[in-house]
Amino acid sequence: MDFAFERARHDRAGNLRGSDELWRTPDTRVLVLGGEHVATIDGPALRWVPVDEAPDGEWILLGDQNGTRHAAVAVQRVPRELNPVSVRVLAPLLDPDELSLAIHAVGLARWLQSHTYCSRCGEYLYSAQAGHLRVCPSCGTEHYPRTDPAVIMLVTDADDRALLARNPNWPEGRFSTLAGFVEPGETLEDAVRREVAEEVGVQVERASYLGSQPWPFPQSLMLGFNAVAETTELVLDPKEIAEARWFNREELLAAVESEQVVLPPPKVSISRWLVEQWYGGELPGAW
């Protein structure tokens, strides 16, 4: 696979999370981040600071990589002098080892910063397990990081044409694959069938899983599928889809080269990877 976040490249060292003394040592490297923005240096590369130079914030144990321990401190806003950059921007540029650590840190930081009160009794929560757990001091409820599963699918028809669509909030020409969140009590395959039918009115029967991608913007896990259409007539839900089109390979290449169609960026989104798996190679252009 060739897209960002597709494989973890560090040991999360979960056995060390119970005690700060086990992992917050002088040689631990610390990443400062706020939301999806991380401290960087020229290169581009992540900026790692010693433990004694880290600002106050929510501490997160990331784990071990290449014999070195890594942690993160989540703050409200990364100081300007640390050159904060969004991980979305950095993703295609970072070394895969650093990207693995960054995506772990961002996913947890966004959850910690948005999950501050107990949903059961309203009490302020405190962190435990090195940032991987919130605990209520009043009712004792344990709150674990939330991940929302979402299916993302490239639909093809009997003529091996690919279906791409544009969200109403996107500019003219920006196309991608269909996607949607999995509902309670639903299999992933059922979610594929339902989302395709709801968004574009196409009936799908076969859906084959291809791969997954964590997407912490804010807290999704994208589950990639190929889906085979039983029908081809398009009936769009205007709240979700502004435009949808069937493309054969020659039509898509011509549309991309003429910039009539702009695809998601390469090496970042699983959506682009799904399209290029069908196409049989790399396509020019990106958002």
Automatic annotation (TrEMBL):
It holds the Pfam family Zn_ribbon_NUD. It comes from the Bacteria. GO terms for molecular function: metal ion binding; NADH pyrophosphatase activity. GO terms for cellular component: cytosol. It catalyses: a 5'-end NAD(+)-phospho-ribonucleoside in mRNA + H2O = a 5'-end phospho-adenosine-phospho-ribonucleoside in mRNA + beta-nicotinamide D-ribonucleotide + 2 H(+). Its EC number is 3.6.1.22. It is an enzyme of class 3 (hydrolase). Its cofactor is Zn(2+); Mg(2+). Residues 145-276 form the Nudix hydrolase domain. Keywords: Hydrolase, Magnesium, Metal-binding, NAD. One of its GO terms (biological process) is NADP+ catabolic process. Belongs to the Nudix hydrolase family. NudC subfamily. NCBIfam families: PRK00241.1. This is NAD(+) diphosphatase.
